[in-house]
């Protein structure tokens, strides 16, 4: 059984749900503490959502320098699968494991909704159980979820297929937080590090995820976790 | 005790929703002449003793590594607090 670490920072909120998603996908969640520079030999790591260190300074800016991040950054550069969800995505950007930055939503309000996404890159460690171009619905909840990078970086991400997920925007509509090119999630070139603002860990059990009126079973997020577990087995 | 001021601003091409919110509120309060607002951050770093060139250099590095995110922000000022007397006076209202 794959052992997937879930880091808890002061102010993490979704670490419990992330651990639960790992369990429901058939893995063994291992709780990791921000203050310990020890990954406990896990096979993959999830950086969960929340407001680490109160989001003081910038979202993820202080968490990036937590003791646990030292071995994590090295391991991620060496190929360890790492998924950053929401605040975890912000931490990965601040740690320069992923390019770009997340800024306050352009409409200045917190967004909380069942969000339709398109899987653009189904070859990463965390998305290979999806079909390329498949649409899924998972919750999205953030105040600072606008993904930004300079134009050259955005062009490179597009060109190299590193846009992992995109918001599905209705004709004439706009994406939920002002993200450049409707980007909801990005991957590194090796495909082991993925970050996204939406919350797949909140869509892993029918009845406890997105509303059935979205036309989904509410379990569209589960395959993020089964993808990485399957990869660990093979 | 010496003090270094570090000022950070969102890059000009980055949308600044906080500044926009303030800009929207000003005319409602009768401050109609301000056509735009951008909101940044100001840090005051304290050191034992004088603010030497080495202290300023270290403050500049801290500004790049931690205080700012170069993807979205510019460090616009790193200076000893003495050179900041005008601002201090205004804030203190002692003119």
From TrEMBL, chain A:
<keyword id="KW-0315">Glutamine amidotransferase</keyword>
<comment type="function">
    <text>Part of the phosphoribosylformylglycinamidine synthase complex involved in the purines biosynthetic pathway. Catalyzes the ATP-dependent conversion of formylglycinamide ribonucleotide (FGAR) and glutamine to yield formylglycinamidine ribonucleotide (FGAM) and glutamate. The FGAM synthase complex is composed of three subunits. PurQ produces an ammonia molecule by converting glutamine to glutamate. PurL transfers the ammonia molecule to FGAR to form FGAM in an ATP-dependent manner.</text>
</comment>
<keyword id="KW-0963">Cytoplasm</keyword>
<dbReference type="InterPro" id="IPR010075">
    <property type="entry name" value="PRibForGlyAmidine_synth_PurQ"/>
</dbReference>
<keyword id="KW-0436">Ligase</keyword>
<dbReference type="GO" id="GO:0004642">
    <property type="term" value="F:phosphoribosylformylglycinamidine synthase activity"/>
</dbReference>
<feature type="active site" description="Nucleophile">
    <location>
        <position position="86"/>
    </location>
</feature>
<keyword id="KW-0547">Nucleotide-binding</keyword>
<keyword id="KW-0378">Hydrolase</keyword>
<comment type="subunit">
    <text>Part of the FGAM synthase complex composed of 1 PurL, 1 PurQ and 2 PurS subunits.</text>
</comment>
<comment type="pathway">
    <text>Purine metabolism; IMP biosynthesis via de novo pathway; 5-amino-1-(5-phospho-D-ribosyl)imidazole from N(2)-formyl-N(1)-(5-phospho-D-ribosyl)glycinamide: step 1/2.</text>
</comment>
<dbReference type="Pfam" id="PF13507">
    <property type="entry name" value="GATase_5"/>
</dbReference>
<dbReference type="InterPro" id="IPR029062">
    <property type="entry name" value="Class_I_gatase-like"/>
</dbReference>
<dbReference type="GO" id="GO:0005737">
    <property type="term" value="C:cytoplasm"/>
</dbReference>
<dbReference type="GO" id="GO:0006189">
    <property type="term" value="P:'de novo' IMP biosynthetic process"/>
</dbReference>
<feature type="active site">
    <location>
        <position position="199"/>
    </location>
</feature>
<dbReference type="GO" id="GO:0005524">
    <property type="term" value="F:ATP binding"/>
</dbReference>
<keyword id="KW-0067">ATP-binding</keyword>
<dbReference type="GO" id="GO:0004359">
    <property type="term" value="F:glutaminase activity"/>
</dbReference>
<keyword id="KW-0658">Purine biosynthesis</keyword>
<protein>
    <recommendedName>
        <fullName>Phosphoribosylformylglycinamidine synthase subunit PurQ</fullName>
        <ecNumber>6.3.5.3</ecNumber>
        <ecNumber>3.5.1.2</ecNumber>
    </recommendedName>
</protein>
<feature type="active site">
    <location>
        <position position="201"/>
    </location>
</feature>
UniProtKB/TrEMBL annotation, chain B:
<comment type="similarity">
    <text>Belongs to the PurS family.</text>
</comment>
<comment type="subunit">
    <text>Part of the FGAM synthase complex composed of 1 PurL, 1 PurQ and 2 PurS subunits.</text>
</comment>
<keyword id="KW-0547">Nucleotide-binding</keyword>
<dbReference type="Pfam" id="PF02700">
    <property type="entry name" value="PurS"/>
</dbReference>
<comment type="pathway">
    <text>Purine metabolism; IMP biosynthesis via de novo pathway; 5-amino-1-(5-phospho-D-ribosyl)imidazole from N(2)-formyl-N(1)-(5-phospho-D-ribosyl)glycinamide: step 1/2.</text>
</comment>
<comment type="function">
    <text>Part of the phosphoribosylformylglycinamidine synthase complex involved in the purines biosynthetic pathway. Catalyzes the ATP-dependent conversion of formylglycinamide ribonucleotide (FGAR) and glutamine to yield formylglycinamidine ribonucleotide (FGAM) and glutamate. The FGAM synthase complex is composed of three subunits. PurQ produces an ammonia molecule by converting glutamine to glutamate. PurL transfers the ammonia molecule to FGAR to form FGAM in an ATP-dependent manner.</text>
</comment>
<dbReference type="GO" id="GO:0005737">
    <property type="term" value="C:cytoplasm"/>
</dbReference>
<protein>
    <recommendedName>
        <fullName>Phosphoribosylformylglycinamidine synthase subunit PurS</fullName>
        <ecNumber>6.3.5.3</ecNumber>
    </recommendedName>
</protein>
<dbReference type="GO" id="GO:0004642">
    <property type="term" value="F:phosphoribosylformylglycinamidine synthase activity"/>
</dbReference>
<keyword id="KW-0436">Ligase</keyword>
<keyword id="KW-0963">Cytoplasm</keyword>
<dbReference type="InterPro" id="IPR036604">
    <property type="entry name" value="PurS-like_sf"/>
</dbReference>
<keyword id="KW-0067">ATP-binding</keyword>
<dbReference type="GO" id="GO:0005524">
    <property type="term" value="F:ATP binding"/>
</dbReference>
<keyword id="KW-0658">Purine biosynthesis</keyword>
<dbReference type="GO" id="GO:0006189">
    <property type="term" value="P:'de novo' IMP biosynthetic process"/>
</dbReference>
<dbReference type="InterPro" id="IPR003850">
    <property type="entry name" value="PurS"/>
</dbReference>
